[in-house]
Amino acid sequence: MPHPRMFAFALLLAAGAVQAQVLPAPTVPDTLAQRLLACTSCHARVDARGNPVNDSYFPRIGGKPAGYLYNQLQNFRAGRRQYPLMTYLVEHLPDAYLREIAGYYAAQPPAAHAAQAEGVAPTLVERGRQLVVNGDSARKIPACVACHGQKLTGVEPAIPGLLGLPRDYVNAQFGAWRNKARRAHAPDCMAEITARLSLEDVNAVSSYLASQPVPADPRPAASIARPLPLACGSAPEQP
After folding, report:
1. CA 216 to chain centre
2. What is the value of pTM for the model shown?
3. Average confidence score pLDDT of the chain
4. What is the CA radius of gyration of the chain?
5. CA triplet 132, 135, 137: central angle to 5 degrees?
6. 233 FRET partner, CA 20 to 30 A, in 9, 78, 164, 227?
7. In the 8-state DSSP scheme, what is residue 109?
């Protein structure tokens, strides 16, 4: 004769099996927001309290210009940018869906990494500031603000902001352009600029940008003075 406790346990298991059969399966809403939750594991990580995690590599993409985000999704799909996970995610998606994704994230409130000012030599930051604000005319290096806006928060519809990005991410992108692992629509202005920068210049620029606080209004500027210092295929001149 079975032990009473074993008999009771068997009844509980049986009851649970019956309940599992009659309860309807949970429904998942078929919305763009639900489908894009997977993106948050890299681009919008938060801790147990819901606070943003300052990942050293992945950028925040909320609030970026829609044209810029769309260009990058196309670049990953076409192999102009090299990151296997991103390529896998977008390689079979049509242009219309990529535009929809870009528009969704462009409409999100901007979120940024905290400024990274610790352990950076003041002389290095100052050199970075000079390049970002003034450029280097002797080497035909334009100022970053000439394209990315005086607040460095980007310009509609396709120029990204540079503040609030992790230093390692900025360095990695310069390295990708230098190694031709990242390309853009021709003429590729950033590849041309990167070729004129020394490794010390790259470190200075990324250190300065990472050390700057994000302005109270981090939205991209509506427009910028044209023509740009260099012809740029991803941000063509308006007709």
Report:
1. 19
2. 0.84
3. 88
4. 24
5. 180
6. 164
7. P
